[in-house]
């Protein structure tokens, strides 16, 4: 049994080292990743920049990813340290997202086993899922019921009920002090946000929910050609209404 445990440690450390290396060579735009403590591969600190042209624009959100000893066979946990008001984020910052749930069949949850964790998922797919979750909350089984009700009011009123948007704006504003303390310049344009990577990132999570109600005029002057970026203006027509 002890040997079995040791094998897991060796293989999960190898997997985590490879992922860290890959993320440093080809970063996911909008994220910075560091180890909380150089000697511990199982705890990562993530800084997330809010994508331009969404409610989260200009935001600097910190989170932790905690990996299990048998990663990638079991999913990591993803927890925001920054206060987040969102249908799928618990009070304590834990993110509730199907790909972070172990792949057991649970008809109650309404999730398909195929949407859950499996060893082909990785930090890159988690980060992209978290970003699309921020902009497209899942109101099916909310972690924060009040946020979910408020989000639905905002969505169903086509943005006329601004309460949800205003709370997020306030939270984004509150992160400016954190960014200053950490000496971080938060990108506010698509050009700054889109880190050029050698291979274009997978095009999932691209039909983000744009903040069309307030930021239309900002879209016009962002015409640099950012085909590598997963938040291209061309996608703004693909939202479900």
Task: Describe the structure using short key phrases.
241 residues; 4 strands; alpha+beta; disordered C terminus; 33% helix; single chain; Ubiquitin Conjugating Enzyme; 10% strand
Account of the 3D structure:
- By secondary structure, the protein is of the alpha+beta class.
- The chain has one domain: Ubiquitin Conjugating Enzyme (Roll).
- 33% of the residues lie in helices and 10% in strands.
- It is built from 7 helices and 4 strands.
- A 4-stranded antiparallel beta sheet has the order 1-2-3-4.
- A hairpin with a 7-residue loop joins strand 1 and strand 2.
- The termini are far apart.
- The C terminus is likely disordered.
Q: Structurally, how many domains make up the residues?
A: 1
The biggest beta sheet, please?
Answer: 4 strands, antiparallel
Q: Going by CATH, what is the homologous superfamily?
A: Ubiquitin Conjugating Enzyme
Average pLDDT confidence is: 80
Low-confidence stretches: 196-241
Count of helical regions: 7
Record field, number of beta strands: 4
Strand order of the largest sheet: 1-2-3-4
Q: Report how far the terminal alpha carbons are from each other.
A: 53 Å
Protein name: E2 ubiquitin-conjugating enzyme
Enzyme class: transferase
Organism: Salmo salar
Active site: 96
């Amino acid at each position: 049994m002890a040997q079995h445990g040791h094998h897991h440690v060796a293989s999960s450390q190898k997997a985590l080292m490879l992922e860290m290396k890959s993320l440093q060579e080809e970063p996911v735009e909008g994220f910075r990743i560091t180890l909380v403590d150089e000697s511990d591969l199982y705890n990562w600190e993530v800084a997330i920049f809010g994508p331009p042209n969404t409610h989260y624009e200009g935001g600097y959100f910190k989170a932790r990813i905690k990996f299990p000893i048998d990663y990638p066979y079991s999913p990591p946990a993803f927890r925001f340290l920054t206060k987040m008001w969102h249908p799928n984020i618990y009070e304590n910052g834990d993110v509730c997202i199907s790909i972070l749930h172990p792949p057991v069949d649970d008809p109650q949850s309404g999730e398909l086993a195929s949407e859950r964790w499996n060893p082909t998922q990785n930090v890159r797919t988690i980060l992209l899922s978290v970003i699309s979750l921020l902009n497209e909350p899942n109101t099916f089984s909310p972690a924060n019921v009040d946020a979910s009700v408020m989000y639905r009011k905002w969505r169903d009123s086509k943005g006329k009920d601004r309460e949800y948007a205003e709370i997020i704006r306030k939270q984004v504003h509150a992160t400016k002090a954190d960014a200053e303390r950490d000496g971080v310049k938060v990108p506010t344009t698509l050009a700054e946000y889109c880190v050029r990577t050698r291979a274009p990132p997978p095009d999932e999570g691209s039909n983000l929910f744009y903040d069309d109600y307030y930021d239309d005029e900002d879209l016009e002057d962002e015409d640099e050609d950012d085909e590598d970026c997963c938040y291209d203006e061309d996608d703004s027509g693909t939202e479900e209404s």
